[in-house]
Specification:
Ubiquitin-like (UB roll); 223 residues; DNA polymerase, domain 1; 5-stranded mixed sheet; 2 domains; globular; disordered C terminus
Length: 223
């Protein structure tokens, strides 16, 4: 005569069997021989040693080939004045100077910078002495939220390095690649003109503001 199995006994026996099966792989893993170091090591990204001159200081850095210039400046050189906004070369917040020319550092691989000279916003001031451009930005209330300000400064610095006596139109053209989400463009233009004022003839202060305002009233003027 066959022995009857109750529902409770069946479920209890099935649960025990499942527990044994689930534990078997863990036990096997504990007793298995360790993997070789070569197999355990994850593949690493290619690395290259590059020689950079950043804010006048020359140094050799070993970096991953995939790192952008913005990443190296911020994460490895602790130069966090360079901001990452869009991270795709559109907003200009990450602007730095490479051999005197403004570039979007989020769109430049750091390995491309080997042997080149880089200036960030930290390199503008001399000790505790602000650059005239920085002082003009403060005096003309150019920064609002401040996130784009370092990029605006570097774009303006590049302009004044090559054109110390710019017109308002030249300032607008030079900074057209830098977005200010606070829409404080007129103050940025005024600040750049004020920084150039000791070296340039023509209107400054209220006259420059009036000229900038007149431009914005024209068809197609402003930003």
């Amino acid at each position: 005569m066959k022995r009857k199995i109750s529902r409770r006994r069946f479920i209890k026996g099935t649960g025990t069997a499942l527990a044994v099966v689930a534990a078997a792989p863990r036990a096997g893993a504990q007793t298995a021989s360790p993997a070789s170091p070569a197999a355990a090591a994850a593949p690493s990204a290619p690395r290259t040693a590059v020689k950079l001159t950043v804010n006048g200081r020359t140094q050799t850095i070993e970096l991953e080939d995939r790192w952008t210039l913005a990443e190296v400046l911020r994460d490895h050189l602790n130069l966090t004045g360079t901001k990452i906004g869009c991270d795709r070369g559109e907003c200009g917040a990450c602007t730095v100077l490479v051999d005197g020319r403004p570039v979007y550092s989020c769109s430049q691989l750091a390995v491309w910078m080997d042997g080149r000279s880089i200036q960030t916003v930290e390199g503008l001031a001399q000790g505790n002495q602000l650059d005239p451009l920085q002082r003009a930005f403060i005096e003309h209330d150019a920064p609002q939220c401040g996130y784009c300000t370092s990029g605006q400064l570097m774009a303006a610095k590049a302009l004044l390095n090559t054109n110390p006596n710019p017109t308002p139109e030249a300032v607008r053209a030079a900074m057209t690649g830098n977005i200010c989400r606070c829409s404080n463009y007129n103050h940025y233009v005024e600040a750049v003109l004020a920084a150039a004022a000791p070296k340039r003839p023509g209107p400054t202060g209220s006259s420059a503001r009036a000229e900038s305002a007149e431009h914005d009233r024209r068809p197609g003027g402003g930003r």
